[in-house]
């Protein structure tokens, strides 16, 4: 698709696929593309299944309040409220904690390790609990909730997805309410949001929306990326090369190579002319970040994993006003996780093939069991 038509209309789904890097970059900050697609982004899949609401609204009312699904000024106002949590100084302040958690998770003397269950998932869960101000003991609850909400974002034409997604959001808001009634660490996300609510800046629903978004974005995408990064390195047979690479550079290449968020949706609010195509107002547009990151017109040998590749820009965290707020924190978690694994096992291979499962429209890397030695399976 990218080679033939980097911007292509799909007759069956009645939406546009954008697969070229330059086209994707341009559209991600285009003023006539709205991020509020859940408000009116129904597809023929929804019509056939009777999903969504009569006015075309999708997902749930709470998700539609997430600032990632809002345009300015609502987006700017909500993002600005929590932006201090992810400043460079605040992220740097989490370094000792992240390093300590990684060392603890890797400290057991064992023959093998499940990168997902033993490292990526508990690490991401404990970090996001710290950011929010929640007890670390709650971390195990986050994975099933995050997965059910992730499915809601891509397959809300399926009744089971809607039921499970709404139940997960209800569980999240119940947990948030409990936390708001107790003592919260000063400077935590929930402490900040509670203060803003008490000062009349936001409503309780805004607290629920922002906190649930941070759970989803801070946990699911980061844990998935750590697992995918290890899988990519072992599949490419380049674990030894990782030992000689600058870890910051390697993580950027891994984000380009197989990022967690493969696509983002937008809704056209006006006519857009791009790549010889005419996107009409009201059209749904899927910007395929993962495919754009493999565009040979921008990246030399894009399907080759090169830990020393110097990347000036990729779309792993999006682009423009909606660039991922937690990008710095996600990078830090991935770097410490990979460094910890590299130190523990200078040689590494799959003990068994990576195991994935389908979860209502999304592919979950369920188990990634590794052991010392080489080459990979």
Walkthrough of the structure:
- By secondary structure, this protein is of the alpha+beta class.
- It has a domain at 41-257 and 326-371: Orthogonal Bundle (Cytochrome p450), CATH 1.10.630.
- The protein is built from 14 helices and 12 strands.
- The chain has a 5-stranded mixed beta sheet with strand order 1-2-8-5-3. Strands 4-12-9 form a 3-stranded antiparallel beta sheet. Strands 6-7 form a two-stranded antiparallel sheet.
- The chain is globular and about 55 Å long.
Keywords:
three-stranded antiparallel sheet, 14 helices, Cytochrome p450, iron, five-stranded mixed sheet, single chain, heme, alpha+beta, globular, 377 residues
Order of helices and strands: EEHEHHHHEHHHHHHHEEEEHHEEEE
Measured by DSSP, the beta-strand proportion falls in 5-15%
The description of the largest β-sheet is: 5 strands, mixed
Helical stretch count?
Answer: 14
Name given to the CATH homologous superfamily of the domain at 41-257 and 326-371:
Cytochrome P450
| Percent range of helical residues | 40-55%
Per CATH, what is the topology of the domain at 41-257 and 326-371?
Cytochrome p450
CATH class of the domain at 41-257 and 326-371: Mainly Alpha
Shape-level CATH architecture of the domain at 41-257 and 326-371: Orthogonal Bundle
InterPro entries: Cyt_P450 (IPR001128), Cyt_P450_CS (IPR017972), Cyt_P450_sf (IPR036396)
Pfam families: p450
Keywords: Heme, Iron, Metal-binding, Monooxygenase, Oxidoreductase
GO molecular function: monooxygenase activity
């Amino acid at each position: 698709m990218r080679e033939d038509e980097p911007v292509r209309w799909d007759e069956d789904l009645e939406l546009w696929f954008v697969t070229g890097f330059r086209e994707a970059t341009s559209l991600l900050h285009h003023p006539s593309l709205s991020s509020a697609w859940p408000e009116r982004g129904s597809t023929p899949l929804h019509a056939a299944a009777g999903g969504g609401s009569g006015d075309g609204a999708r997902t749930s009312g709470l998700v539609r309040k997430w600032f990632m699904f809002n345009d300015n000024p609502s987006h700017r106002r909500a993002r600005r409220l929590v932006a201090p949590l992810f400043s460079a100084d605040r992220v740097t302040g989490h370094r000792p904690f992240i390093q300590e958690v990684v060392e603890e998770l890797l400290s057991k003397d064992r023959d093998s390790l499940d990168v997902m269950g033993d490292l990526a998932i508990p690490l991401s869960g404990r970090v996001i609990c710290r950011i929010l101000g929640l007890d670390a003991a709650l971390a195990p609850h986050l994975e099933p909730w995050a997965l059910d909400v992730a499915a809601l974002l891509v397959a809300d034409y399926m009744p089971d997805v809607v039921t499970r997604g709404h139940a997960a959001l209800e569980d999240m808001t119940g947990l948030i309410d409990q936390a708001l009634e107790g003592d919260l660490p000063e400077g935590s996300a929930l402490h900040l949001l509670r203060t803003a609510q008490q000062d009349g800046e936001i409503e309780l629903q805004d607290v629920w929306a922002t906190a649930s978004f941070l759970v989803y974005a801070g946990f699911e995408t980061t844990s998935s990326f750590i697992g995918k990064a290890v899988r990519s390195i072992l599949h490419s047979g380049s674990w030894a090369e990782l030992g000689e690479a600058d870890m910051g550079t390697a993580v950027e290449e891994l984000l380009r190579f197989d990022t967690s968020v493969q696509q983002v949706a937008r809704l056209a609010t006006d006519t857009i002319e791009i790549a010889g195509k005419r996107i009409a107002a009201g059209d749904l547009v899927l910007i395929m970040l993962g495919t754009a990151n493999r565009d040979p017109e921008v990246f030399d040998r894009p399907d080759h994993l090169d830990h020393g590749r110097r990347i000036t820009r990729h779309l792993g965290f999006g682009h423009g006003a909606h660039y991922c707020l937690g990008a710095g924190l996600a990078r830090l978690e991935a770097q410490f996780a990979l460094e910890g694994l590299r130190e523990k096992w200078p040689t590494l291979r799959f003990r068994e093939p990576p195991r994935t499962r389908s979860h209502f429209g999304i592919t979950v890397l369920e188990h990634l069991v590794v052991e010392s030695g080489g080459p990979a399976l």
